[in-house]
Amino acid sequence: MTGVPASAAGGSGATPVRGGKLGAAAVNQASLWNIANLLTMARLVLVPGFVVLLLHNGGYDPAWRSVAWAAFAIAMITDLFDGHLARTYNLVTDFGKIADPIADKAIMGAALICLSYLGDLPWWVTGVILFRELGITLMRFWVIRHGVIPASRGGKMKTLAQGTAVGMYVLALTGPLATLRFWVMAVAVVLTVVTGLDYVRQAVVLRRQGLAAERAAAVQEAAEAAETAEAALEGVSGAAVPAGTAEGAEAAAASAEGIEPAAGSAEGVEGVEPAARTVGDVRGAERVTGASGARGAAEAER
Prior knowledge:
With 302 residues, this protein is mainly alpha-helical. Helices cover 81% and strands 0% of the residues. The protein has 10 helices and no strands. Helix 4 packs antiparallel against helix 5 and helix 7 runs antiparallel to helix 8.
């Protein structure tokens, strides 16, 4: 980093150092009208202009086709720069995420359709490339909630081969160069199919992993909910039986045990019977003693 804008550093009125990157504050304020989005918009505007230039004067004027090639080359170059600028300076916006792939497909699709319309390129080549590009775009939306598949080296080679081949077909080439462009387009078609199949494979794997992760998260949430419910039930059970209740129950049981023997249990009955026998023995002894005394008195009188 060779310099930081004054606005990012907290100053005001100073101009940033030439060649310096944006500061953190400026990066966080990325708006719709940043350089990356402006390049994407320029590429979108170039699409109808490119079509007009390519089909002008019947589509077979070498001069106009050279101008059309220049417009196509500018579109391809801006495609490289806008993505690089957006990633380097954190200028990624929702508009850029949507508009950038649309601009890519628009300029490439317009070129292929126009070339096939002029008879320079077989329609099946245009169909294969467009089917792949549109299908992959739809597949992005199919797996976007599970993740994003990064651009592979094969995908970058495919883009380079397509751009080079289409650019060579836009130019009015003859002789060996016309033969060369045929083989470049053949390589582009092969890379288009191979990278498309690889992207489908990665998308399927990513979706399976995402669904497995969602199921695992659901099971974990269910287990946590069950543990929470169990803890709540244990808390309710503890609150329904206060601490003093157990002590009261023990005291009541002890009182009941104390009352039962006195009220007429077997031990109470056994305690009463000895008492009754004792009273009877005393009374019988008194009678015997009385009788003995009376008998002794009678004998004494005699």
